[in-house]
What we know:
single chain; alpha/beta; binds S-adenosylmethionine
Amino acid sequence: MFDRIAGVYDLMNGVMTAGMHQRWRERAVELARVGSGSRALDVATGTGDLALALRDAGAEVVGCDFSEAMLTRARQKAPDIPFEWADALELQYDDDSFDAATVGFGARNFADLGKGLAEMVRVVRPGGRVVVLEITTPQKPPLSTFFSLWFDRAVPTIGRLAGDPDAYAYLPSSVKRFPEPGELAAQLAQAGLTDIRWILTAGGIIAIHAGTVAS
Ligand SMILES: C[S@@+](CC[C@H](N)C(=O)[O-])C[C@H]1O[C@@H](n2cnc3c(N)ncnc32)[C@H](O)[C@@H]1O
């Protein structure tokens, strides 16, 4: 599915978020606490926007994904960043080999969320950071009403216009089955993080969780 949508992915991101997704990525990078001299891994990097934001903060970045079509787009955008094939559930990187690992709009697609989070924790050194940027379901009206209209009606319609109704019908269902923020924090703790905090933005539609790898 991700190979199929790679060509329209950036355009759809811009349309569906009114361009706000880049600001959310910047917040995620701040929470990753990287800078010059840091090594960061962006898991499920897709077309690479979060990897680019990490690089712009001064980090040495590797982006990885299991969709070759997504990786091709990312490489075209930033030939200076190594974009590598990897399965998030079985990363090929050594233990403790990064100062931070991030995932943007990717975790809800992991076939085994616990395993994916544990892999991110494994490859980050003790004291390093793991950040998860994800769409979440707002609980209270009016945002919950808007969210439901947007995701259940508008997004599938936009997907049909973009030529891939299945992919953009999958998006709302993947968001709905993803754990709510408190539950995700519990899963991050189980994966080996401490000091877990999260921020909600975009009226509660976007959650950015971050934690520190336990020593
Ligand atoms: C919605 S896109 C997000 C892309 C990008 N991180 C962003 O912020 O726009 C989800 C990405 O997760 C990737 N993905 C999903 N499960 C994966 C897995 N198990 N291993 C590697 N990549 C995965 C898909 O190939 C896709 O590129």
